[in-house]
Queue: 2 jobs
Job 1
Amino acid sequence: MELWYKEIGFYNNPFSIKPSAYTDDLFGIDTTKVLEDISAGSILFIEGEFGKGKTSILKKIINLFGGKKKVVYYSCNRADNSIHVESLLKGGRTFLQKLFGITPDEMIFLLDEVTELSEEDSEALLNEYQKHIKSIVMVGPSYKKAKIANGLKEQIKDKVVKLGDLKEEDAVELIRKRIGETELLSNDLIKLIFKKSKKNPRLLLKNCEEVCRYAVSHGYDKVTEDHIKKAL
Amino acid sequence: MWYEKLDLDENPFEDAENTKLIGYDDVLDEAFYRVDSGGILVIEAKKGQGKTAILKQIINKYQGHGKVAYVDSTLVVEPNIENVIIQKYGIMGRLFKKMPKEMILLIDDIETLSEKNNERIKFFYDQNYIKSIIFTTSNLKKIKFSEGLKQRIGKTIKLKELTEGDAVEMINARIPNNQILTEEIIKDVFKLSKKNPKEFMKNSEILVKYAVENNIELKKEDIKDILSGKEIDKEEPKVENPSEKKEEPKTEPKEEKKEENEKKKEEVEEKKEEEPKEEIKIEQEEKPIKVVYEDIAEKYY
């Protein structure tokens, strides 16, 4: 059986939920401001529930700020105990964008899945901040619930960016960017699917994929309301 | 070998590379789709329903260039996923700790997933070092997927029970011109095997082998007896697989007893045969898994 998206001319799954796939579609956030803040050397916290674009925006930052040599990415979920900021900066860990031996200045530190940061880690980060670390971007599900030392919070101040809910127009734009102007899925139907997607970008993508796959595999050129009912 | 009498080169009840999976066409379609489109699939099924067999079909289809990493969770309780995919990437991975791209990760029979592995998998998947993932498990609720990973799962499938019709098709697919197991007998055996495919295959093999080796026609009434090791006519039932004879010293005295008084032997044999049967089960479960793992290893190291 031919893959549904190949039948409409795509080599890869246009609705891929991987953050690395398509990074030019971030909604509900002023990415320009975020990037400016980073360039200016701030500490920010980006909060958002699952599927809203946290990892996507980190990917964008990594891409824009020069990849390996400038950005350190660390996911807090993997922490055994503490973060070992210094060794991260020197590239001690295997997992990360490695820094090549020396400790350059103006590093951008990305912390993913931040729910709790120990005093020790917060101190280490603050220590390196404005020395080797130019900017720190923390990403997590909730700023309020995150246990971060006061010292850090003071530096963050009001630079808490919330990944907003997707709006209907955004939804249409997001899907159109993915599949272009193909007649397979009309804008009205995108809105219908959107209603079933709890305003969550990832869920919207998943649902569109299911619907399109259903329609094409049953031999249809266009998605209909019936398909949506049956597929979702 | 007994199956040679049926004009077969190999034991029809052992899974070969091109064994067609009956009754799971839609599951396979879904699995192939998830692999192609870069998704994550979870297949839930009880033991012996065919989880590993499904993954084998995927390995068959996508193997090559170190692309598929298969992890048998029963062999290694909590492998470090990073090591798994770096190892699979071969020399590049091990020498330079270079990350592979677009690997297909198959984790078979998973029971738990540590926080670290949750995160590693999510990270690798996001970065596209891993293109797609298929998990199989017998108990979905027990696995602790992190919220992030859970949200990335494309679909969860529960394997449906096979039907009697599937059972008949399975036998006919493996034994061309099958005349040994009638449809009625197949359905009975299927029920006796509690509709479990693995059990069903094992029991079918016992019956067919018995019929072939003793040159008799199987009758419905005799099935239970044959499967439990009781003899039904003058010749002795041989319950064990040929490979077992090498490992089980207990089988040798049985062969010598062929010509002796049968009634006395029945009770003795039943007791002895209970033990080897359990061992047969374990061995048969282990073999298919190990073979796959080793095959891949041979090809890519």
Job 2
Amino acid sequence: MNKTVIEIRNVDFAYDDILVLKDITLTVEEGNFLGIVGPNGSGKTTLLKLILGLIHPLRGSIRVFGQAPERARPSIGYVPQYAEIDSSFPISVMDVVLMGRLGKAPLIGRYRKIDREMAEEALKEVEIYEIRDNRFGTLSGGQRQRVLMARALVGRPEMLLLDEPTASIDGRVEQDIYELLKRLNEKATIILVSHDLGFISTYVNQVACVNRSLVCNPIEHVTSDVIKACYGGPVHMIKHKCEL
Amino acid sequence: MFEFINVLQNQTFMQNAVIVGLLASVACGVMGTYVVTRRIVFISGGISHTVLGGMGAAYYYGFNPTHGAFVVAIIAALLIGFVSLRYHQHEDTLIGALWAVGMAVGILFIYKTPGYNVDLMSYLFGNILMVKRESILFVACLDLVVISLVIVFYKRFLAVCFDEEYSRLQGVSVESTYLLLLCLVAVTVVMLIQVVGIILVIALLTLPAATARYFAPSLGKMMILASLFGAVFTTSGLVISYKQDIPSGATIIVVAGLAYIIATVIKGLTSRFRSYNKK
């Protein structure tokens, strides 16, 4: 029996008066690779933010590594959607990655040598060490995604949360990123949000379909009926599975 | 040009003007970089215009208007910062209201002050040629405060400006960092009011930084470049205004504006040229 890393019980969440998530129950065990899928606006990102403790549930409880979400943050690496980050901001790749050490570095003054070494290590891990001095805004989508992954890895997290890591990235690069995640999964639990079922089924071992409510299944139990129920109609994942 | 150097050698008022211009450029470049990259131009505008209320009140009660400006600038920064954090949806309306009410209060105080009301124009549009020796010390102290705090909190400011949510996840108090940043903007505004006056402060705060942004690879280099641009704009503006016998504040802003437009055109042409070469 593996250790439970996330335990969500009967959680409701609403923005103002609009109920976004209803009666969500989800358990994630250590070492899992969970894909959270669902149509746009179904509450996937909201679920990630609840796990990070950035927002709080209306009802129900969330435990991460057996603690309140805020207290578990040092063990979590978060990769936001890169499209939401200001690409015109003058900042180097290295400085973005160093942000991952902000919580552990001294309050004032510069980053220490150890912070820089760990940032370099993370850059090597995602294979973008060569572009560490480049400006973040000049990189391609796939490279930016790797920078944000390095930033999440630099804190040596036990769990990685990724929000649409392959949105607006072409297929070839998308596959590279999934291969990288597969490797990272040997050391960390991974939770990945995607609106697109595309490659996901080849890499994840657990799928949660979110559409206000949540249905979670091990990957081998995900049938077209499960998907249909979530999206309210057939989706191309079924076709994709046939190709396998 | 020789004529100007001659005046600079012999006249203390011109020496004071150049020194204050150069000192203010440093804080202007550093804080302008944050204002431009964090996109808080409107918030900074709110702070600077509200300051007239403080200057007017200080003038009316017989204090040094610059000191009144300093106190009100900090209050305005905290108030506007609070509004933008708490009532984000109505941010622009509330700041717009503070902006106008601050100015109106200032005008009423100045109107009610006995004696000449000639100072109103110099508050609004600046009069760098009237700057006194003790102002130099005041501006130098503010410079020191701004620069040392930016050095101390550099990585924190960078993180909060670049990615607020991630900074929060790292355990950084985003709210207090943001308020401190706005206070430093307020301090810089008080310095720049000496140079170009309340109305033109926003242009001097943003134009050197916006110009520097085209050429700077990192935030730190953008600050240095923006400070250099600020120094060049204020000094050359002074030279031109002296020669042509026109208002110095407005001349400085026109010089800065022209430089920004030229830089934008150059940047546009080079990036077009580059993409053409790629094809």
